[in-house]
Amino acid sequence: MTLIYTGDTGMIEECNCLIFTIGNKFVKEDYYGVCGNLIYVNGIVKDIWKQLETE
Fold first, then answer.
1. Which letter does DSSP use for residue 25 in this model?
2. Whole-number Å distance between alpha carbons of 14 and 17
3. In the 8-state DSSP scheme, what is residue 52?
4. Measured between alpha carbons, how far is residue 25 from residues 6, 9, 22, 41, 47 in Å?
5. 7 near 21, Cβ under 8 Å?
6. Nearby residues of 35 by Cβ (< 8 Å), 6 or more positions away
7. Which of 8, 4, 26, 25 lies closest to 17 in space, CA to CA?
8. How far is CA 31 from CA 1, 5, 20, in A?
9. How much is the pTM?
10. Which of these, 1, 54, 10, lies nearest to 33 by C-alpha position?
11. How far is 24 from 46, CA to CA, in rounded Å?
12. Which is nearest to 50 in space by CA: 42, 15, 6?
């Protein structure tokens, strides 16, 4: 599995985030939005962004 920058950005809670995924050339897992020190996860099925807890 590899962290892949999708080349996209997205607005998440009024922040312009870079969008990443973890997977490989054929299979993509969850999508992650990163802006500043905030990380959001989006499951492929639900299409809902949820903030990850960071310490």
1. S
2. 9
3. P
4. 12, 20, 10, 20, 21
5. no
6. 12, 15, 16, 17, 18
7. 8
8. 13, 10, 6
9. 0.80
10. 10
11. 21
12. 42
Report yes or no: 31 and 39 within 8 Å, Cβ to Cβ: no
Mean pLDDT by 10 residues, the chain (55 residues): 91 93 80 93 79 79
Residue 2 near residue 23 (C-beta atoms within 8 A): yes
Six-digit token pair at 6?
């999708």
Q: Which residues of 12-48 are buried (b: 16+ CB within 10 A; e: fewer)?
A: beeeebebbbeeeeeeeeebbbbbeeeebebeeeeee
